[in-house]
Amino acid sequence: LSLALYAGSLCAASSAAFLYHDYCIIGAGPSGLQVAYFLQQAGRDYIVFERSHAPGSFFALYPRHRKLISINKQYTGKSNSEFNLRHDWNSLLSHDRRLLFRHYSRDFFPNADAMVHYLEDFASMLKLQVQYNTAIIHVTLEKDEQAWNGHYFLLTDQDRQNYKCSSLLVATGTWVPNVVNFPGSEYVEGYETVSINPEDFAGQTVLILGRGNSAFETAENILGVTNFIHMVSRSRVRLSWATHYVGDLRAINNGLLDTYQLKSLDGLLEGDLEDLAIVKDKKGKLHITLRFYLENRNTSAGIDSIILPQDELDNFATRAPYDRVIRCLGWKFDFSIYNRSLRLMPGKGNKKKYPQIKPSYESRGTRGLFILGTASHSVDFRKSAGGFIHGFRYTTRAVHRLLENRHHGVPWPSTVYPITQLTNSIIKRVNEASGLYQMFSVLADIILLRENATAFEYLEEYPVGVLAELETQTGRRAPNGLFVVIMEYGRNFSGADKDVFYYNRAVGEAQHAWQSNFLHPVIYYYKHLPTEREMKLRPPDWPLPRPDAVHHIVEDFLTDWTAPNAHVLPLRRFLENCLSTDLRNFFAESCFFFAFTRQKLPPFCQQGYVGMQGLLGSEGLRRHAVEAGLLEDYAPRDFSGDKTPDSREGSQDQLLRDHAIPVRPLQHLVNAKDE
Hints:
This protein is 27% helix and 17% strand. The protein is α/β, with parallel strands linked by helices. The chain has 4 domains: 19-174 and 332-402, FAD/NAD(P)-binding domain (3-Layer(bba) Sandwich), CATH 3.50.50; 185-329, FAD/NAD(P)-binding domain (3-Layer(bba) Sandwich); 413-579, no CATH class; 588-627, no CATH class. A hairpin with a 5-residue loop joins strand 12 and strand 13. Helix 2 (30-41) packs parallel to helix 10 (389-408). The model is unreliable at 5-16 and 643-675 (pLDDT under 50).
């Protein structure tokens, strides 16, 4: 009995040692705070673990030279807050208008310190549940059939405190520096520790390893004080204006390209960094050679005994010695804290710095483990903005909506409209929606048609990669077909080798809309929800499988898709062809005429005029329509040809205002006509 009691007390103590929450979030960076906000708004049980004493610790150090490359556009000429988020790349989503980044900085490219201040306010003003100074050092699984996902996540912090949660949301970003090991790599300084004082580089010759924004940012800082700067990387430079990918080289950092192409000593080279070797001479100068020259040689014997490339090729590009070599190779995800039971594996190829996840942002190896923020960028790497605040604030919201449906039975938010509002709904969204605009080809609006196409249900910003799972992921049904509204660039317009400034690069005619190059709306129509097999077999670089019909809204220089003839009319006719119906709007006089001459009324008349809805008549409205040539003047006249006295007009005006006059149903009108 004593042993049994002792064992029971141990079990109770063990259970009490685990602090439980439904949702555990690792990291209080932008994506961690963003998902915390959505969970708090929904009233869920969650906790955020942050290893530092404040949120956004990454921005306290990076970028080293403190200038962000995310734009902060103060003015757009519009007051629509959703539209303005298209050009605000730093704000997180919330209901509090004070938490817009423009209140923290007026700079177009803000200082990183403003981001630190902003994230601190976001966490404190919204009272998010963040536990600071808590570094999670180990994560494993505990099988339990009663758990949401068939297991619990067990977390341990630096003080050996244990936590248990049903769903794990990883928002740590990518913060482990990428390091390439080669002979002599011990002489290389890292971007994370190198001096940011230009005077420390005065009169020096510098080699930079890497070709991303951190490499060019470093070069930009010392460009005016060095003898010359060389930059070497495996791949050629990728300009963001050519690739349309914001993670490639931005114009704000590309001063080195000017000095290279204008022959001012600086230069760019291509080569595999793993083939390099660095040898240090007696004066402390660093000489670049190739690894195979050092094979079977003793590098400690001195540089005089080592054959350098210039000994055989006297014009070898990097034959001049360097004073410093700086590594600027970016960052990767930290896999070290995750137990093998989670099966959290790195991606392949150029995505190996990210964990493998599904298009729903859930781990491929473990149900209930979601990757958020920069670390989730493998879904749209080099395609869209999912690795940056202005992109992942929307993908994080999408993940929250998926979780709400899966664990709490809350369907994906939607709005039902009559079919007559279909054209207007699409035009409104493509002209103001920020999520569609920033996460082009990744997030899409889904329009689910009701039976007989009399109404539709509108779902905003759903991940198209899991379109085949729409019914299970959203709790919405799609038995009658659907439209998918998405934004795309032209198929052959983006690429490192593309000339995006060529003559006649833009399309202006609606009949050539399918050839549009710049970002523009595309509407896909499916009679049935695509299957998982159709999604896998979709054409290369297509976000969706082949539809039953597709429509491109022609690109617009102002990104304003409201032109009646170029944008609205072709869209309406496309929708009408797909639905075999008439989506035009009509005056009451026309609806009245159609009721006697047609067996089927247009939806606008059926849902409006016959349903006793629409504008109420008045003499002023009738007179305006007559003057505009929209109606004939049926006002009674006397024998002299003049209109009847004012008293008659007054009685007619009263008649037009009387909206209580009963209207017979359509079937009665048709029967009367047949009789």
